[in-house]
Amino acid sequence: MSQVVHPRKKKSYKGQFGRVTVIGGNAQYGGAAIMSASAAVYAGAGLVSVVTDAVNRSALHARLPEAMILPFDAGKLEALLIAQDVLVIGPGLGDDNAALHLLKRVFATIRPDQTVIIDGSAITLIAREHLTVPEARLIWTPHQMEWQRLSGVKLSDQNPQTNAQAAKKISGVVIVKSEATEIFGLQEAYLNPAGSPAMATGGSGDTLTGILAAFVGQFGYSDATICAAVYTHSAVADEVASTHYVALPTQVITQLPQYMALMSQK
Which sites bind (6S)-NADPHX (predicted)? Predict the structure, then answer.
């Protein structure tokens, strides 16, 4: 952790710490995008924007005034996306025709030097529609059922060996979320040692995407950065779980700055 998370230089400005945009949160699942964006802000991303259903505007401004907001149908969407370092797409996006249209619109805009974190509904749409993903620095964050859809490996057949073989066929880094999360990185495979059943609650995956986005935006796209982000998410949740039956994502998010400060001093 200390090799990745380090103290900030005295002469710093927000543009140095990553421009992140979260794309998701339809009218039903707005909380997913809010939690992802919140995690990105609390984990240190310099500038965070949210592309979401317009119905989420008031809730987002109330819970996270640090984030900027743009509705799904905004004409300025492409201009925003091009200027970003990291894009998160999928949290609460939905899998209807409107979501598919937006996903295709985003994919048509992505630059090869951007990092794109593909999560949730976006994984389902890609698998269902057999979409071609753009050339970019990709990070996939499927839970086990989404991994089954994406990889074709049945849930009952999933293990480190079968998952590794399937991950080799997919461009980018693959994070298969489970009670023992596996990370199939750019260099090798890793197993996350932290985490507990207390994390088994809605929004945990959305929180992870935001932490990943913030870490990559600040510390670069590498196995070390990605593993540090996954570990941080679980380690903070473990701290919450030491005194709580459930590690709620919102509780994990609020403890991120303190945990990262401690890690940066080691």
Answer: 32, 92, 143, 206
